[in-house]
Amino acid sequence: MILRKMKHVQTGLDRIRAGLWKQLKGYKLGLLANQASVDSMFNGAGEVISRLLPGQLKALFGPQHGYGGEDQDNMVETDHAYNNASKIPVFSLYAEKREPLPHMLEVVDILIIDLQDVGTRVYTFASTMLNCLKSAVKASNCPGPPQSTGRRSPGGEPPAPGTLFFCGAIQFSHASRTDNGRNGTDL
């Protein structure tokens, strides 16, 4: 058996820390993340961004199960909260509304989305990402909402038209074998 040295894999947070943070300097930042949003050293996304860009993180956003993953019961809505350590709001995107409302987006210039997903439609993270993109388009008066590509993959056919719901709001196959970053880019 021949062992080969693996290349170092960088997370998006590693890339931000390696220099992309300079592009974020001066902006009011929002972060949509959960407990799995870590860099390669297992530092949380909020911690990494706050260290690199002190005072610029203005709001946290949590998907289903909450920003910190504290609400693990399935289909249980998460309340909005306040992060005492950072002194910023934590907006739940799995509450009475499943999208960021205008007042939530008013406090940020850029919303960073760092959600890990295993590439299946039954998880709500892709839907949450899509709702964030649509809300950002509305808030910025961009020309038109993002559109799904309806991409097919080895994981099966996308859902039939008219059968979309929150856990499958994007027309990807059941097991798209891609991550949310790729899915968001393809919208």
Number of helical regions: 5
State the CATH class of the largest domain.
Alpha Beta
The proportion of residues forming helix, as a percent range, comes to: 10-25%
Low-confidence stretches: 144-155, 163-168, 172-178
Count of β-strands = 5
Q: Tell me the domain tally.
A: 2
> Strand-residue fraction?
5-15%
Distance between the termini: 42 Å
**CATH architecture name of the largest domain:** 3-Layer(aba) Sandwich
CATH evolutionary superfamily of the largest domain = Uncharacterised protein PF07075, DUF1343
> Main β-sheet, in a few words?
5 strands, mixed
Q: What integer value in Å does the Rg equal? A: 17 Å
Main structural class: alpha/beta
| Biggest sheet: strand arrangement | 3-4-2-1-5
Written description of the protein model:
About 13% of the residues have low confidence. The protein has two domains: 92 residues, Uncharacterised protein PF07075, DUF1343 (Rossmann fold, 3-Layer(aba) Sandwich); 71 residues, no CATH class. A hairpin with a 4-residue loop joins strand 3 and strand 4. The longest helix is centred in the C-terminal third of the chain and has 16 residues. The chain is built from five helices and five strands. The chain is α/β, with parallel strands linked by helices and 187 residues long. Strands 3-4-2-1-5 form a five-stranded mixed sheet, with helices on one face.
Summarize the entry for a quick read.
It contains five helices and five strands. The protein has helices at residues 12-17, 45-52, 102-105, 125-140, 180-186, and strands at 29-33, 57-62, 81-83, 88-92, 110-114.
